[in-house]
């Protein structure tokens, strides 16, 4: 395809451009090189031959809205359109500098966007685990804490002229299909978990302490600006000839409300994010960046975004060359995107075509003004114009600080999931292990551990590094294959050598799994198996090793390791995601019991055959009976799995006791509030008043509380993730099997008890989204299930009546 050669490993094409144009002259990047930290600085204006007092946009006594309008009104049309791409050109005539909008901070400050770079002054930044592993901690305060540290490093690098203020992270697409190549970037398959991750990470990045009570959210200060992406129904990159630049996701309004939009809604409403990025794909025939309902209607209208909407990089070009949307030319596509509500183009289409579009009468210049004002207000909130004294003192020492690197280690430990532990083989007693055989393509993993959208890590501790650093241990290392694809192992020679290395070792650790050569942006999987001869390697080593065999899997998506689960020679299995720069150390800490693992799988691990039962292009979450497609995710898939969503063991045992729970909600509807119809599997389940729309209920007045006592009945201190699920009343057709409605990670000392109290909003926890897309609270007896491993249940009776 002609389009394809112009594109686009999301953002890679532009990265290359930026390297050739922007980076040779870092002076254009920020203001700091001129030894001034913000635009509205009189000496800076003087150098430009201007008098600052004449520029109302620099008058800090005025509201941002007024100042932004003044700034925009000073520009000519030609100047305006040059500010609407990621590489905004600035207008020297009026004192406005250039600004590069594109920086990334998915799990640490990254140099993927051209707004940020590393060099001798700042050689690296803290590289936290990839998001899928951090998500597995199910620890909201950790998610926020990481955001805070990342934004501190970003702000420090901004002060040093090495980074921007606007970060296009996090990626909050729900993992609908296990083949998706970008699972590593996301918090998994549950929309509520994804939404809470988004809210906490965004607040960590954006919030400025001490300004929590700002009532005018359009002027709320920002530490850095975050961006929730990719909006929406985007989780297909390239699968069997279908790619995201051409893919039209056919999505029902039911799935849209219940699954695809939910994390974005939480990100905007609860996280108060300052930007949303629209995606490459179309949804129901319309490219997302050109859809006025999705952008203006929902993000701005219904959710009330305080900030700007940006396109994925070159999305408008994708509309023209990929989707061939309405046969548009450049001007037409840009006009439709602007009219739909797209404020900033990552790319050059806006700059190249918006002036012509105005002159041709396709759009109003006023629409350009409106978008520019959204953009400048965000920059004002960041202190780009006035500076921000809170962050002025941040510098080199705040990047890769001891505290930040320690949190990267803590995050990896918290996320690691113990999948199997026969005979309590783990933790190993360090005094009884003298020789350790490290085997497998990830035994010395380095860059694999930091995944994609990474920066340069401060330093990286591979598994091999961490095990060899132990005192007085004999450590051997054999790859077993030449790389993760494991297609070339020298006719079994490498496997044979690996087997030999385990014959005398007290313990064997096998490091296997996937990496970016298997699952990545622009690369979806076609199967759920370990690549190449990895399975052979594992089986052969398991058959010959002298000591216990511990299998350590690095991956984002699930792999069908049923063979290993069932192999009695493999005593223990750990899933470690891609664990970040301290990954090796975190694994050592878990293996020897310095840390008791408590992570839980944020995605279902399906059996390999699952992907033969449905194409990746089918967007429905519910089973499609006419086509024999099974459901997707734990909410709708009722078949057997390798490991279910939420699975994870501990070195100790927990028991739950229900302390108290709301048993009944009796809600009297006013005369004008109507009972809604519900589809029942059998008329015998029918309720008098089957349901009521959640938007007409007083949800706050009907909070449901559930309190459980979590008792550590085992021998070791431990961390337990308490998961609370709801089940809809019996007999309602087409609803979820169960859905997560709350969770809390708690530390409980051996022998101790910790009470955990949940306050549940019935409209968000016990609602169902019907096939008509009505969001209702149904009458009847709802189930409440607490825990995966130690499940207890209770019920909530909802009685709606007039
Ligand atoms: C949650 O994460 C924080 C770090 O932000 C950590 O201090 C705390 O111990 C964690 N909680 C549990 C129960 O692991
Ligand atoms: C914000 O408001 C809360 C509740 O009124 C108050 O306790 C808190 O101190 C306020 N914070 C700031 C920074 O003013
Ligand atoms: C481990 O990886 C590092 C970084 O790639 C490399 O320098 C080192 O030689 C590797 N060690 C072994 C034993 O392969
Ligand atoms: C799972 O769902 C399918 C499709 O709705 C249904 O045909 C099947 O009976 C269900 N299986 C179980 C074990 O409930």
Task: Tell me about this structure.
Residues 1-22 form the signal peptide. GO terms for molecular function: alpha-L-arabinofuranosidase activity; xylan 1,4-beta-xylosidase activity. Residues 720-790 form the Fibronectin type III-like domain. Pfam families: Fn3-like, Glyco_hydro_3, Glyco_hydro_3_C. This is Probable beta-D-xylosidase 5. Helices cover 27% and strands 18% of the residues. The protein starts with a helix and ends with a strand. It has 24 helices and 29 strands. The chain has 802 residues and is an alpha/beta fold. Among the domains are: 414-643, Rossmann fold; 654-801, Immunoglobulins (Immunoglobulin-like, Sandwich), CATH 2.60.40.10. Strands 11-16-15-14-12-13 form a six-stranded mixed β-sheet. Helix 8 packs parallel to helix 10 (262-269), helix 12 (315-322) packs across helix 13 (330-340) and helix 16 (402-415) crosses helix 22 (583-591). Mean pLDDT is 95; it is low at 1-30. The structure holds 2-acetamido-2-deoxy-beta-D-glucopyranose (4 copies). One 2-acetamido-2-deoxy-beta-D-glucopyranose binds next to loops.
